[in-house]
Amino acid sequence: MDFEEYASARGQELVRLGFTVSGDYQRAEDLAQIALMQAFRSWRKVQRADDPHTYVRRILINSYLSMTRRRSFTEAPAAEIDTDHTVPDPATDIVNSDDLWRALATLSARERVVLVLRYYQDMDDRTIADLLGIKPSSVRATASRALAALRKTRQSHRVDERLP
């Protein structure tokens, strides 16, 4: 498979992965573009990898983690939204989803990446460990700490129901 075919076939999947780890669509597009650009630079090396797609996903994850270390990356979530309504609001699901995104934003970049890879990408601990270059026990410990932090900072009952 040449680079153009790969980019066409997997580009949107990379954007989705970028969105789930960053929570920002524009940043997700940037992450996918960075990953594809770096993969293009060393396409022969990527093709020789056991799983080229895993190699490119690792580039994207490492780019995200690197990006979060920069001082300019830090953003504070907006103030809480008042959701105390006496009549059920049809937008409740949207608010609950927003609450979950806010709770995820309180996690460190590595914690968020581990949870996204585990629960959104449905990867096992060994695959996540290989992707991040850490031990499987570190993946489990990071996931445990992240879930504990999410439970501690939950803002509504609906957020709690979504947590494993």
Automatic annotation (TrEMBL):
<dbReference type="InterPro" id="IPR039425">
    <property type="entry name" value="RNA_pol_sigma-70-like"/>
</dbReference>
<feature type="domain" description="RNA polymerase sigma-70 region 2">
    <location>
        <begin position="12"/>
        <end position="72"/>
    </location>
</feature>
<dbReference type="GO" id="GO:0016987">
    <property type="term" value="F:sigma factor activity"/>
</dbReference>
<dbReference type="GO" id="GO:0006352">
    <property type="term" value="P:DNA-templated transcription initiation"/>
</dbReference>
<feature type="domain" description="RNA polymerase sigma factor 70 region 4 type 2">
    <location>
        <begin position="98"/>
        <end position="150"/>
    </location>
</feature>
<keyword id="KW-0731">Sigma factor</keyword>
<dbReference type="InterPro" id="IPR036388">
    <property type="entry name" value="WH-like_DNA-bd_sf"/>
</dbReference>
<dbReference type="InterPro" id="IPR007627">
    <property type="entry name" value="RNA_pol_sigma70_r2"/>
</dbReference>
<comment type="similarity">
    <text>Belongs to the sigma-70 factor family. ECF subfamily.</text>
</comment>
<dbReference type="InterPro" id="IPR013324">
    <property type="entry name" value="RNA_pol_sigma_r3/r4-like"/>
</dbReference>
<keyword id="KW-0804">Transcription</keyword>
<dbReference type="InterPro" id="IPR014284">
    <property type="entry name" value="RNA_pol_sigma-70_dom"/>
</dbReference>
<dbReference type="Pfam" id="PF04542">
    <property type="entry name" value="Sigma70_r2"/>
</dbReference>
<dbReference type="Pfam" id="PF08281">
    <property type="entry name" value="Sigma70_r4_2"/>
</dbReference>
<dbReference type="GO" id="GO:0003677">
    <property type="term" value="F:DNA binding"/>
</dbReference>
<dbReference type="InterPro" id="IPR013325">
    <property type="entry name" value="RNA_pol_sigma_r2"/>
</dbReference>
<protein>
    <submittedName>
        <fullName>RNA polymerase sigma-70 factor (Sigma-E family)</fullName>
    </submittedName>
</protein>
<dbReference type="InterPro" id="IPR014325">
    <property type="entry name" value="RNA_pol_sigma-E_actinobac"/>
</dbReference>
<keyword id="KW-0805">Transcription regulation</keyword>
<keyword id="KW-0238">DNA-binding</keyword>
<dbReference type="InterPro" id="IPR013249">
    <property type="entry name" value="RNA_pol_sigma70_r4_t2"/>
</dbReference>
